[in-house]
Amino acid sequence: MDNDKFNELLKILFNNISDIKSKGFEFSEISVNEVFHSINNVYSEMYKFVLLYNDYIFSTHSYGVDIKFSMIEVHTLTYIEDNPGITSTELVEYWHKSKSSISQILKRLEEHKLIRKEASVKNKRFKLLYVTEKGKKVNEEHRKFDIVDVSKTLNSLQEKVSKDDISSFFKVINAYNEVILKDFEINN
User: Taking the chain (188 residues) in consecutive chunks of 10 residues, what is each chunk's mean pLDDT?
Assistant: First the structure.
């Protein structure tokens, strides 16, 4: 979609949002189809991005070992190293994933001897998570990989948009995360 078309769709969307707010969500004077298609056309780019990024997250990479890991697996490893003694329940809360999803990730990391579980001194039912020496090596390679990968991505983006645009994108993403997290809190 070209910039002019995108900006026109945003204009329609923002104009109708202010009308909807002032009229209490009454659509009598607003074309439902026009608003819906404006929203859908603008958001379709975000949907594509989310789906592509989701595929990227679950694609695998080698991080200095013969085994390939997904982004969520290796970032979980990093989070455990940065928070030694964390529990799986805390990971569920941090990642906003199901217990079974986190359990599968931890099982894979443990099978490859990247993490170990220790019973809590206070409550033997709780398992505290720690990164092994092998896990630390994988994590070090992961950090190097991410530095190079993010640098390449930012350089590629700067060929298409300005640094200010990139900064604005991250600002919007942070605000959007807050909106989504608030929605999770309200609806869960």
Answer: 63 62 52 71 84 90 85 96 97 93 97 95 91 96 92 96 94 91 81
- 24 token code pair: 């209490």
Whether pTM exceeds 0.85:
no
Same domain, 44 and 102: no
> According to the 3-state scheme, what is the secondary structure of 69-133?
EEHHHHHHHHHHHHCCCECHHHHHHHHCCCHHHHHHHHHHHHHCCCEEEEECCCCCCCEEEEECH
Domain that holds residue 27: 1-58
Residue with tokens 């919007």: 172
Please check whether residue 69 is in contact with residue 57, taking contact to mean a CB–CB distance below 8 angstroms: no
178 and 141 inside one domain: yes
Rg (C-alpha) for the chain, rounded Å, is 22
Res 83: pLDDT: 98
Q: Take residue 44 and report the two structure tokens written for it.
A: 């379709």
CB count within 10 Å of CB 180 equals: 11
Q: Is residue 90 domain-shared with residue 157, that is, in the same domain?
A: yes
